[in-house]
Specification:
158 residues; alpha+beta; 60s Ribosomal Protein L30, Chain: A; five-stranded mixed β-sheet; 5 helices; 34% strand; globular
Length: 158
């Protein structure tokens, strides 16, 4: 049995915050305002994984009003999410993502993001695609007010 899942996440950007994407710290003058570390890439992947196996969403498992998850490293959430997926009898075939941000330019960081996330969940980096785009200065991403990410995953029954 093969299933697909889709995830989406958004965070507001603000000066004085850190910008975590794919489990790595990205140097930038703005970062994500969030209860956790605000890693939109990992959060979108978690939602896609949970959706693929019909286990709800990231907020159901890791509520943003719980002190347990305050400032948590999203790599921990990814690891816990994939454990839920594996416990449901599924494994990842591939992950495809698109981050939307006007700045910073993310291309130099993509390989490291893939390596880090693959290591966290025990898959090959080649099973993870990370793409980055701008919105040509349109919308909240284009005005550098926020950052978003779409993720699609394919899982199969073990």
């Amino acid at each position: 049995m093969i299933r697909i899942g889709q995830g989406y996440d958004v965070h507001r950007l603000s000066e004085g915050e850190t910008l975590w994407l794919g489990g790595i710290l990205i140097p930038h003058n703005k970062g994500a305002v969030a209860h956790s570390d605000g890693d939109v890439l990992i959060h979108a992947i978690c939602d896609a994984l949970l959706g693929a196996v019909n286990l709800g969403d990231i907020g159901t498992h890791f509520p943003d009003n719980s002190e347990q998850f305050k400032n948590i490293d999203s790599k921990i959430l990814l690891k816990k999410t994939y454990a839920l997926v594996k416990n449901a009898g599924f494994e990842i075939v591939n992950i495809d993502t698109t981050i939307s941000a006007q700045q910073p330019k993310l291309k130099p960081f993509i390989m490291e993001m893939k390596k880090v996330m693959a290591q966290v969940i025990g898959i090959e980096a080649g099973q993870i695609s990370v793409k980055a785009t701008t919105t040509e200065k349109l919308g909240f991403e284009g005005r550098e007010e926020g950052i978003s990410c779409h993720a699609v995953v394919l899982v199969q029954k073990k």
